[in-house]
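[[Local backbone shapes]]
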Amino acid sequence: MNFKNTILQEILSTGIDKNEGRKLLGKFLFSGKDAFKLIQSLSMGEKCRVAFAKLAVSHINMLILDEPTNHMDILSKESIEKALKEYSGAIIFVSHDRYFINSIANRVFEIENQSIKIYEGNYKYYLERKEEDKKKEKLGDKYINIKDEIIKLECEMAFLSGKLKGRRIDIESEEEDVQRFFRIAEKLKECKIKINSN
């Protein structure tokens, strides 16, 4: 960035015309007279927004970003998030901003003990999988057996629920199915407690 340029001059240096430049700056929260501020007078967050605006019109197909939301207020973060969601190339970034990660990431790479583990999904999915992995590790083979039992019991409950729902319940003739339903519900509860307490 040329610190002696105005924001608009800096954006126009990318080769876009003035109207497109003004529209682009509006997306990055620089409207009206703000476009004529000198780069050198901007805060770090504003300089970051200018840099992102320039990246938005560049024809590069991959961004590598280190803590992209540092030095930014909430509105700035939101404008950057929106721009990154519209970006058609690949983005590799490192961030401690969990909200930002969850909003932008569609794949999480975890680097630990000199190895990389890939999670296909956002940050929330990554956390859920990590929790699931801990349970698997702690319970070993029991984990798979309990999960299978949960699936079996849920299917059986769905079947019984449909069977009981479709007809008027005559307590005597349906009592066995009702009792079976409650036994399965209790077993299911026990299985879920086993999984979640470890």
